[in-house]
Write a structure and sequence with these properties.
Blueprint (H helix, E strand, L loop, with lengths): L3 H7 L5 E3 L3 H7 L3 E3 L2 H8 L5 H19 L6 E4 L8 H17 L7 E6 L2 H14 L3 E6 L2 H10 L3 E4 L1 H11 L11 H13 L5 E2 L4
Parallel strand pairs: 1-2, 3-4, 4-5, 5-6, 6-7
Helix pairs in contact: 5-6, 6-7, 7-9, 8-9
């Protein structure tokens, strides 16, 4: 049975598919294909393409290994942000990344697993450190309570977002200059330093 698509092809019209799904592309047999990151993300969620995701992750840890050749400390590798509220999923992905690093000769002591400072992320970091010896870098840290929770969990590194804290105040509480000691980002950093200074925890500050 001849379809409308067949008629278009026979008329000389160039058929273009806007998709990242191989099966769909193969089914419609377009002449050209256009892709973007959102389309690839939809396709990547299908089990059929799991092997491509695994290959991409392997390339990621390969980059980490090369970076370690030129720095004196650790390289951080981030767990998928979609797992930020999934403690068990975060732990599983962290252990998978460490295993991949091990497979290319990188010791886990040279790797920090980068997690969001959600409650689930902090709990995952705690379990990873004390149960598996896997150290974590907690990012997206905006509140003093997050810093306290990270400290109590014994995480290795925290990254307060100083500039983003200031941005929030400027947007939601406009009218002040927030200069010097009035900068809420700097105030948060001072409080964070106070609580973490006596603990075995590293701090990095993102402007």
């Amino acid at each position: 049975m001849t379809t409308s698509l067949d008629h278009l092809k026979q008329s000389g019209t160039i058929i273009m598919s806007d998709s990242g799904d191989f099966e769909s592309i193969d089914g419609y047999k377009p002449q050209d294909v256009t892709m973007n990151l959102s389309l690839l993300l939809v396709a990547a969620n299908k089990p059929t393409y799991a092997h491509l995701i695994n290959e991409a992750i392997q390339h990621l840890v390969g980059f980490g290994k090369e970076i370690l050749k030129i720095i004196p400390s650790c390289v951080s590798t981030e767990v998928n942000a979609r797992l930020s509220f999934n403690k068990e999923g975060t732990k599983a992905k962290a252990k998978e990344l460490i295993a991949l690093y091990k497979s290319i000769g990188v010791k886990k002591e040279c790797v920090l697993i980068k997690l969001a400072s959600t409650w689930e992320g902090i709990r995952a970091a705690c379990k990873l450190k004390w149960d598996h010896g896997i150290h974590c870098n907690l990012t997206l840290l905006f509140a003093f309570t997050q810093a306290v929770s990270c400290t109590e969990a014994g995480v290795t590194l925290i990254l307060p977002f100083v500039g983003h804290i200031l941005d929030w105040y400027k947007k939601n509480l406009p009218g002040k200059l927030y200069k010097g000691d009035e900068d809420p980002g700097l105030q948060s950093v001072k409080k964070t330093l106070t609580i973490t200074s006596s603990m075995d925890i590293r701090r990095g500050f993102l402007p």
